[in-house]
TrEMBL record:
Catalytic activity, EC: 2.4.1.135
Top-tier EC class: transferase
UniProt key word Cell membrane: no
Protein name: Galactosylgalactosylxylosylprotein 3-beta-glucuronosyltransferase
Gene of this entry: LOC101848915
Gene3D superfamilies the UniProt entry points to: Spore Coat Polysaccharide Biosynthesis Protein SpsA, Chain A
UniProt subcellular location: Golgi apparatus membrane; Membrane
Length: 342
């Protein structure tokens, strides 16, 4: 009787509800715990992945820094001795430079060499207009540390300019360039390369040499301060050379300056008769040479941003006056030491 009073149906129902509520709360709690655990595990996985990727990036960064340092050291070792850089497998640029004895000769060769020492894979062919090689040029070339060839051939007197003649009256460097071409044909065969005629008094951007290095046949570009114009240039339409911007005889086959083109070495070998002549009409040296190579307008490859940029200038050094040498001796009894090379 007493137990019945304690466990009345209403009380029993109450405790059943309480128990059910407790189990519901417990289940909800467990569910939340499971969700939180899954989120935590997912977050942990993301963090682990992040740390792994971060470590990989750090490792890659370390490797890149190491390779960069090695490359810098290699470049430094290549250029620290003042010599031009050499990269195996890169096409060689063969440079033909006629030169002659004058007061400004060493100064101009020095200035040119300071540019060339920054150009990879060059072979400099320097040809003196003289009966014999001079000690000045021989010593100079040896000191550059370049790959070079030193030649000489004298221009006959009747083809030489007189002291008061304008520079355009007679062609210059004709036999010297031909001697350079003959050396190339005898000493280079199947190796990839490019020929460029480099005058010792011109000014060259380093970019120009990389523009010409992979010339397929003949590459062309503008030349500044030439022909009594600001520049001369091929005219380019839709990526092809279609004409010429020049004042002097624009109907010539190739009315451009010697500094305005480079030729693939294969063309030099496939056309052994192509060269220059003292007998051609003024302004036709370039046309004579390129025509002899069988080049047409369609073969020309416009460089220097489709011939819209000037990367070479036809500069000239002012001829030096030494009138005070004699006055120095007469007035002070002093003279320059002939043993000091200028």
């Amino acid at each position: 009787m007493q137990l019945r009073r304690v466990c009345t149906p209403s009380r029993f129902l109450f405790w059943c509800v309480v128990a059910m509520a407790f189990f519901v709360v417990l289940m909800i709690y467990d569910t939340f715990r499971e969700c939180e655990s899954e989120e935590l595990r997912a977050t942990k996985r993301l963090l682990d992945n992040y740390h792994e990727q971060n470590q990989e990036l750090k490792n890659d960064q370390f490797i890149l820094k190491k390779k960069l340092k090695e490359a810098e050291q290699q470049l430094s070792s290549l250029s620290s001795d003042g010599k031009s850089k050499w990269v195996p497998g890169l096409p060689v640029i063969y440079l033909i430079t006629p030169t002659y004895t004058r007061m400004e000769q060493k100064a101009e060769l020095t200035r040119l060499s300071q540019t060339l020492m920054h150009v990879k894979n060059i072979h400099w062919i320097v040809i003196e207009d003289a009966d014999a090689k001079t000690n000045l040029v021989a010593r100079f070339l040896k000191q550059t540390g370049f790959n070079y060839t030193h030649l000489n051939v004298a221009t006959p007197a009747h083809f030489k300019l007189a002291s008061n003649d304008p520079s355009w009256l007679k062609p210059r460097g004709v036999l010297q360039r031909n001697a350079g071409l003959a050396w190339l044909r005898s000493n280079t065969k199947k190796q990839p390369g490019v020929l460029f005629f480099v005058d010792d008094d011109n000014t060259y951007s380093l970019r120009l040499f990389e523009e010409m290095r992979f010339t397929k046949k003949v590459s062309v570009w503008p030349v500044g301060i030439v022909g009594y114009l600001r520049y001369e240039t091929p005219i380019v339409t839709d990526g092809k050379v279609t004409g010429w911007f020049t004042y002097f005889k624009p109907t010539r086959p190739f009315p451009m300056d010697m500094a305005g083109f480079a030729v693939n070495l294969a063309l030099i070998h496939s056309h052994p008769g192509a060269g220059f002549s003292n007998e051609v009409e003024r302004g036709y040296q370039e046309s004579t040479f390129l025509t002899g190579l069988g080049v047409t307008l369609d073969d020309l490859e416009p460089k220097a941003n489709m011939c819209s940029e000037v990367l070479v200038w036809h500069t000239r050094t002012e001829k030096s006056s030494l009138r005070n040498e004699e006055k120095m001796w007469k007035k002070y009894g002093l003279q320059s030491d002939p043993n000091i090379e200028v």
